[in-house]
Amino acid sequence: MSIPSAFGSYEMRGLAFANDSVGWVGNDIGPRLFKTRDGGYSWTEQNSQVWGSWSISLLDTLRGWTGYLGISKTTNGGLTYIGGLSNETPGTFELYQNHPNPFNSSTVIRFTIKQPSEAEITVFDMLGRQVFRWPGEGILQAGTYEYSFTGDNLSSGVYIYRLTAKTSEGKRVFSDSRKMIYLK
What we know:
The protein has strands at residues 12-17, 23-27, 32-36, 44-47, 53-58, 64-68, 71-74, 80-86, 94-95, 106-113, 117-124, 130-134, 139-140, 143-150, 157-166, 172-182. It is mainly beta.
């Protein structure tokens, strides 16, 4: 079998298929994953924001994770990534404007939390309907974080994203919202 030209000069690692059609393969050079929907005949490149993808595990066609020097995961067939950016303890909670904005395939939502908290990101359409929810990864330590959001299952339009932070007892200590624009 020849190496598909979509891979270029990358050395492939971590091949996994969810079924006969849908599969992923990572590489050891950069933050890239390749996805197939036709059993490996064609591949599309996706930026995973994790440097190197040596291990890939899939639960089904929508849920899985990959990692080497960080972890990307998916719960909707697109890629999401969360990672800590700083060990410094910030003095405030803050939700920053996503970038890029407007965005086409993915955007980064950055936030800081000043105390250990459960953080949740929710996205709403302009009618107030919840279209996405990232329930967090348990208690995050105080610090600055980035979350990579993909709008694969959304229509072009204006959306509101909200960060909510709660203590381990469930008391809300912070909530803020911002507007983002998705263009397909």
